[in-house]
Amino acid sequence: MGQAPAEVQGHIPEGMELPPARKGERALARRRQTAAYLQLAPGGIYMLLGFVLPLIIIVYTSLSTSGLFSTGGKSVFSWEWSNYTTALSTYGDIYIRSILYAGIATTICIGLAYPMAYWIAFYGGRWKSTLFMLILVPFFVSFVIRTVQWNFILGTNGLLFGPLKSLGLVQQDFTVLRTPVAVIAGITYNFMPFAALPLYVSLERIDRRLVEAAKDLYASKAIAFRRVVVPLSFPGIFAAIILTFVPATGDYVNSVVLGGPRTTMIGQVIQDYFLSRHEYPVAAALSVILMAGMLVIALIYARVLGTEDSTLAAATA
Amino acid sequence: MSTAVAENVVTIPEAPIRTPRKRWTRFILPVFTIAMILYLAFPVIVMIVYSFNIIPNTGESERQTTEFHCCTVVHWQEIFKVPELNHALAVSLLVAFPAALLATGLGTFVGLVLGRYGFRGRGLTNFVIFLAIAVPEIVLGSSLLALFVQLGSSKPLGFYIPLGYWSIFVSHIAFSVAFVAITVRARVQGLDATLENAAQDLFASPRVTFFKVTLPLILPGIVAGFLLALVLSLDDFVITNFVNGSTNTFPTWVFGATRLGMPPQVNVWGTVLFLAGVLIAGLQILRARGVED
């Protein structure tokens, strides 16, 4: 951004001996702090305004009385907890459905990604990174396009069932689209890299000598895997669960494109309330409930892995 | 000498050679992995193949059909045939590049500071970044919409951001900054501090040290952060769908078009963007290999 030079002045590498007396050192420490804040300020302020403020506003909105935005009038903040009771009593079952779908998809994702990541990390040899790239490459295609293609593939007479039906292997009226199976399959597909990446990274990091040591101590291959490899990959499994489950719960592209009226997920309801019904306070309450649930999970995760490690895993994903 | 010694110890029984048992089960994992790779690639292959599909002329505008008739390049030639799609693509690019650049500028300094300084508020900053990544997109999207509508209705700051290009732009920067910051922070933390010390020992001013030593070393992190921000912005559907008003980006337009049936140009553009992504990723990998060697 071009403000670099002025701010770097205060930066002195750690461990460097400085001749001046204590007074000078303290001034230097203060300058370092100032330099840190100056560099942090533009991005930090942007994140406060563009990210923290919206979250505050949505909580505020969720406790306001209806008619707030649609009438164009001033917001009426009134500790309107009824928005929450309305949201929960009307859509409790949809929250449960979202969690269920996301949970099933997460389980399948990890079940499929783990053996794959394990084989590539342990037996991929010099093809390791190429093989792993092959897994990630499809996800360069836009999320929406991928999902639309699945809609096309799974269609009643689509690519998958069309040929099966003409062979008489599947009944004519059989369809997967608009069923929970299609939605869960879509979520599983779309969030696979979020599971595969942390699993691969954690498996790849395991010191092979530990597995060899286990074998030297007469552990069979299966026991070495179960007692050494799996426990050492726990951080990866944990990261995979969070990184898949959290976005999957809030997802609505899959349930709109692949689902039907009976597979509505909470993301769809939130979107509908905000963009079609314009009932902002209830919409905000629905959103805050989802956020709170996901934050609890994310915080447990941060507690276990630390925010730095966990955000890094998220970034690489 | 050594051969003589060896001859004296011939009595050692031959150690049982551990030959890996050649059972068919050893094929399970490789075959499974290849099957998974094919499964993950399947929709992409369908997309590419159907960009060459001959669509029977029904008199109406062209929509993707299930029957595949090989092959035509007409959709590739008529790549700009759908004006709304062109417009949506233009909006996507006009948002993504400047937003990614700005987010990189803002995020790089946040990452630098987090990677090297201890300061009051460090934990809080890390937490906000963590939040930015952990909060579901739908929550962030709806929150940003609430912010823009609130600004529009009560004008507490005397100005407002209309839903459309600018709201999309502002939102995309908001979620990209955190990702850039993390990428740069990881790079800064992996930095060998002695290199900077060495530069200073050789009488480089802090400014020279930054530009000649630190910046080149963290540049891969900055580039990776920029590319990440670019991809996130180009691909974003959920947040954009909340704040876009009536302006469409590529993903939101495709999403809307699915209800009527998809023109084949979507497959063509999908393939173009996919190839661009593959190309950039390939170059990044090659460059990373070059650095290692």
What structural class is derived from the secondary structure elements of chain A? Answer: mainly alpha
Largest sheet of chain A: none
Return the average pLDDT of chain A rounded to an integer.
84
Specify Rg of chain B, calculated over alpha carbons. Answer: 27 Å
Q: Quick check: average pLDDT of chain B?
A: 86
The end-to-end distance of chain A, rounded to whole angstroms, is: 27 Å
Q: Give the helix/strand class of chain B.
A: mainly alpha
Question: In CATH terms, what is the fold-level topology of one domain in chain B?
Answer: MetI-like fold
Spans of chain B with pLDDT under 50 lasting ≥5 residues? none
Superfamily at the CATH H level of the largest domain in chain A? MetI-like
The shape of chain B is globular
The proportion of residues forming helix of chain A, as a percent range, comes to over 70%
User: Which CATH top level class of one domain in chain B fits?
Assistant: Mainly Alpha
Give the count of helical stretches of chain A: 14
- Give the second-level CATH assignment, the architecture of the largest domain in chain A: Orthogonal Bundle
Annotation field: number of helices of chain B: 12
C-alpha Rg of chain A, in Å? 26 Å
